[in-house]
Amino acid sequence: MTTFDFYSIGHSNIPAERFLAMLQAENVGVIADVRTTPFSRFCPWFSAKNLKPFLEQNGIGYLPYGAALGGRPHGPELYCDGVADYEAMARQAGFQAGLDQLAGDAARGRVPAPVCLMCAEREPLDCHRCLLVARALAARGLSVGHVLHDGTVEPHAATERRLLELTGEDGALFATGQNERIAAAYRRRARAVAYRAKATPAGRTQ
After folding, report:
1. What is the pLDDT of residue 2?
2. Do β-strands 30-33 and 61-64 pair in parallel, antiparallel, or remain unpaired?
3. Is 201 among the domain residues?
4. Residue 136 domain-assigned?
5. What count of Cα atoms within 13 Å lies in the side-chain half-sphere of residue 114?
6. DSSP-derived secondary structure for the chain
7. What tens digit of pLDDT does each residue of 142-165 get?
8. Residue 106 is assigned to a structural domain of this protein
9. Is the pTM of this model over 0.70?
């Protein structure tokens, strides 16, 4: 059985018991909730006030990381034409500090391992937990496995291969190197799926 330094999962509309079984299948010790707003109107069992006690009753910890690692930034400098700019977000000191804390706590055994990043979107390539957070963890040499809704776990490297195919960068001319093609694929996908801020009457974003 392949093990990873971190897992990731999107809760979508999974029934609570099925969600729990998927975590238990990978022996997940703690959920790191990377939703900026840990609330679900349509699936209230995934709102933090309900999810935290449910997980803890079943031996899984819950840690809120949305403030540092969430996908909906507050500063206008972190948007490009109204779309959250993941590359700019990744350079922020607060984001890097959040990664430091997450990786450091996991490495030192301060939280029950393994840690699973959680956000809302079912598909990793539709979510900042993959396009921003998992990418940053992988850049630090940490392995990430994405728990898919059929119960399989997709290594992040395989997810990147799907990303290249999805964005058309797999067929790019070899005038650019692999790293440049992957960066372009991340940029294109993030542009398509990242959070879009609402415009205020003054033309600013919020």
Report:
1. 65
2. parallel
3. no
4. yes
5. 23
6. ----SEEEEE-TT--HHHHHHHHHHTT--EEEE--SS---SS-GGGSHHHHHHHHHHTT-EEEE-HHHH-SS--SGGGEETTEE-HHHHHTSHHHHHHHHHHHHHHHTTSSPSSEEEEES-SSGGGSHIIIIIIHHHHHTT--EEEE-TTS-EEEHHHHHHHHHHHHTGGG--TTS-HHHHHHHHHHHHHHHHS-BPPBPTTS-B-
7. 999 999 999 999 999 999 999 999
8. yes
9. yes
**Tens digits of residue pLDDT in 72-115:** 999 999 999 999 999 999 999 999 999 999 998 787 766 777 99
Angle at 88 between CA 33 and CA 189, to 5 degrees: 75
Q: What is the mean pLDDT of residues 30-45?
A: 97
pLDDT of residue 196: 96
Place of tokens 């079984």: 21
Find the domain containing 52 and state its range.
Answer: 6-193
Residue 99 domain-assigned (yes or no): yes
CATH no. for residue 113?
3.90.190
Domain total of the chain? 1
